[in-house]
Amino acid sequence: MPPQLPRPMTRTQRTRLSAFMQRTHQPGRRTSSELGRGPVGLPFTPERHGLTWEQCKLATWLLERANQQRPLTGTRQQVQFRRALRIAGIVSSVKAGRVGNSAWGRSMLATRGGLAMARHAPHILTANREQMRQQQAWDAHVAQQTPLDEQIEAWQQEQWRPRNFLAY
Q1: What does the pLDDT read at residue 126?
Q2: Averaged pLDDT of the chain
Q3: Residue 12, CA atoms < 13 Å, CB-side half-sphere
Q4: 8 Å CB contact between 49 and 91
Q5: Degrees to nearest 5, angle at CA 114 with 109 and 120
Q6: What are the residues whose beta carbons fall under 8 Å from the beta carbon of 53, sequence distance 6 or more?
Q7: Alpha-carbon gap, residue 94 to 59, rounded angstroms
Q8: 10 or 33, which is more confident?
Q9: Which of 27, 56, 84, 85 is least enclosed, having the fewest CB within 10 Å?
């Protein structure tokens, strides 16, 4: 059975609907038209989100791209909540100037990974530090006792020696 198309509203239905909307309209609440919708198709406006028109266009483009790449799924309430979070994140990043800022992206790259060892395996880092300290002390001791020619020869042979990954 093909899906039924919605029928247009009759004049009576339209009058009842508009009367209902006028009755339920809360005067203290601003409507979207009062907030200044701006051009059609822009969900972001300077009045509502505190952005410039260029930032609004950029935020709209980011929202459309996010919706195409990662559509929101779930119940109606979940989708509504996730959409609000997505819009808040986009507005925050556009206001802070993080969109298109490669320096900020590089600074955030692997920030969690950089602290993973310190948070979860400090004993390994302590052992590595101790081993490196001992190696440096030994190298200094050997350097003081051997002449320069022997040091150069030892250094050239050391270049071909496989290194222990813990030495770094």
Answers
A1: 86
A2: 79
A3: 0
A4: yes
A5: 140
A6: 38, 46
A7: 7
A8: 10
A9: 27
